[in-house]
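Support request from a user on the community tier.

User writes: "When I paste my structure tokens into the form, the page sometimes reloads and wipes my input. The last time it worked, I copied everything first. Here is what I submitted, just in case something in the input itself triggers the reload:"
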């Protein structure tokens, strides 16, 4: 079984979502595809769902192994994959039907080492653009590079990318195993190692926002292991960038950590316990002490204030700042009319008189 594109799907206890994921791969407009499904010791009905796809579609192949974690399952799939290009798709997520064709078309046109694209979140109310990535993928940039477009340093997930296999092998890329945040030490250096990258404004990946007992790794913001593994991954990237021939690259990355990446851990301190807060202060201050002071001047006044308080280890004040910010974000409660109108689908809003739209929604949209 071969295909120009190999899609590696690690599977572990995702029977609620796996059918939808695999259906989206079977429906790709690009047909020259192989799908390597790696059952990582699932204890639910996931393996049966994957086996059914293997039986009905020769492009699907199921590999079974004892549980080894996400990084290990991805590496197993990579060892089996035979395609000229490879993509990693998490088994609770889906792809738009055109995703593989669009990314492969860009790479065939440009010769870039990988293509990356916009991500939309799958939420209970439907699809919505990722707020984190929307500014990055506001426009398509072919044959670009992180040294030309510095914001690519924030594009740190593996799943929204189609990788040229020769690039992957040239740099001996392997996912770290038995850790969280295994994407970071692979993806960020890859942006710097690539000769060029194609960044597409089209949504190429639908990322499920899971809540409750099945919440995703990225939502465990007050888990000490998540914090430790995140900081370990960022330090690996920082060590790589210390040896990169563009000295400013480390500052680009550190600025993204303080304004975005680590901010995701600072903000949830409101919900954390004392032991986690202490661990946060100890570990994060080690990184902050090694950060160029100039970077703090590039932050927004509020973000700079937060980090100044963290550096001073004044925990009561950071929590007060976070609490007041959270209340400010809430703003005044919407009126009944606003609540009703905001539930109206966007196309139908245009039939509402302009004056009422402006009065209720604050704009003419």
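"...and here is what came back when it finally went through:"
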């Amino acid at each position: 079984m071969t295909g120009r594109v190999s899609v590696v799907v690690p599977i572990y206890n995702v029977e609620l979502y796996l059918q939808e994921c695999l259906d989206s791969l079977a429906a790709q407009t690009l047909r020259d595809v192989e799908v390597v499904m790696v059952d990582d010791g699932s204890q639910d009905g996931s393996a049966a769902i994957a086996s059914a796809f293997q039986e009905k579609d020769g492009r699907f192949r199921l590999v079974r192994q004892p549980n080894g974690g996400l990084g290990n399952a991805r590496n197993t799939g990579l060892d089996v994959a035979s395609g000229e290009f490879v993509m990693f798709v998490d088994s609770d997520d889906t792809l738009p039907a055109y995703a593989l064709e669009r990314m492969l078309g860009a790479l065939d046109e440009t010769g870039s080492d990988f293509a990356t694209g916009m991500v939309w979140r799958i939420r209970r109310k439907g699809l919505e653009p990722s707020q984190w990535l929307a500014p990055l993928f506001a426009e398509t940039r072919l044959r670009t590079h992180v040294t030309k477009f510095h914001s690519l340093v924030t594009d740190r997930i593996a799943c929204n990318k189609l990788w040229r296999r020769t690039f992957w092998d040239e740099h001996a890329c392997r996912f770290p195993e038995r850790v969280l945040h295994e994407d970071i030490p692979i993806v960020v250096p890859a942006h710097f190692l690539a000769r060029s990258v194609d960044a597409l404004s089209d949504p190429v990946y639908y990322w499920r926002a899971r809540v409750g007992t099945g919440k995703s790794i990225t939502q465990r913001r007050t888990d000490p292991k998540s914090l430790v593994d995140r900081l370990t991954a960022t330090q690996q990237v920082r060590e790589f960038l210390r040896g990169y021939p563009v000295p400013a690259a480390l500052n680009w990355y550190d600025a993204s950590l303080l304004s975005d990446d680590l901010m995701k851990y600072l903000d949830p301190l409101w919900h954390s316990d004392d032991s986690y807060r202490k661990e946060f202060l100890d570990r994060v201050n080690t990184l902050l002490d090694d950060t160029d002071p100039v970077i703090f001047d590039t932050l927004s006044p509020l973000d700079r204030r937060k980090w100044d308080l963290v550096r001073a280890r004044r925990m009561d004040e950071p929590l007060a700042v976070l609490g007041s910010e959270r209340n400010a974000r809430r703003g005044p409660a919407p009126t009944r009319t606003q609540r009703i109108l905001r539930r109206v689908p966007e196309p139908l809003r245009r039939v509402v008189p302009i004056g009422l739209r402006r009065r209720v929604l604050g704009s003419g949209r």
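Agent notes: The reload is a front-end session timeout and is unrelated to the input. The first helix runs from residue 18 to 26. The first strand starts at residue 5 and ends at 11. Escalated to web team.
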